[in-house]
Design brief:
Length: about 210
């Protein structure tokens, strides 16, 4: 899998815009800490997909600063929330936001939307515990794939395994990026690609598994 990140170098302090290119696919990726920019992304997404809002699939993932200590220190707060619908991804740097926009709360709480990911219930619980965000309707891709493909062993699969099994794609998830400083105000291109692709492949797997999408 060939991955390239193109920076649009937009002249704004509120956000950065990238294209994350995977083989022949381009995922427009918006990175922001700005509540109004988040609301704008949600509005645009609902307009573009208005014909399927009653059954919208959204890839969801979160990242946080990892602990390297063996002590019983509490986990760091979720630093980024990633959402993906089709070839559009949002990376919300929630840790650096002045507030959480009402539109995001409404979007996550909409029971007509299905938020998909690996371990997505755990991610939803983290969002609730750390930020008071309720994700109303989640579906774990592991159990969904196991049921649709009649392969019980997929219940213990990771996203890389599911991407290979369902999409025929070989994901690259470098450990040094997994364990990087997700609380940084400025994310590296490697972090942007990693965060984007986790949400994007979650969406694509959910779309492929869904017979009615």
């Amino acid at each position: 899998m060939k991955i390239c990140v193109r920076d649009h170098k937009v002249p704004f302090k509120t956000h950065k815009l990238y294209d994350v290119i995977v083989d022949d696919e381009e995922i427009e990726t918006l990175v922001t800490h700005d509540p109004a920019t988040v609301s704008g992304w949600i509005d645009n997404t609902e307009i573009l997909h208005q014909c399927r809002l009653h059954r919208l699939i959204v890839g969801l993932d979160v990242e946080w600063r990892p602990h390297f200590s063996s002590s019983n220190c509490p986990a760091h707060h979720v630093a980024t929330l990633q959402l993906c619908v089709a070839e559009s991804c949002l990376i919300f740097q929630i840790l650096h936001a002045s507030k959480i926009p009402r539109r995001l709360k409404e979007f996550l709480a909409d029971p007509d939307y299905t938020f998909v990911g690996v371990g997505v219930k755990h991610d939803a619980r983290r969002l609730w515990n750390d930020w008071g965000l309720q994700v109303s309707n989640t579906r774990d891709l592991r159990y969904w794939a196991a049921k649709e493909l009649n392969e019980k062993e997929l219940r213990g699969a990771g996203l890389k395994d599911l991407a290979r099994e369902v999409l025929g794609e070989d994901m690259n998830k470098p450990l040094n990026v997994t364990l990087s400083r997700w609380d940084n105000r400025l994310l590296s291109k490697c972090q942007v690609a990693y965060a984007c692709l986790d949400a994007y492949f979650s969406f694509e797997i959910g779309r492929r598994l869904s017979a009615w999408y």
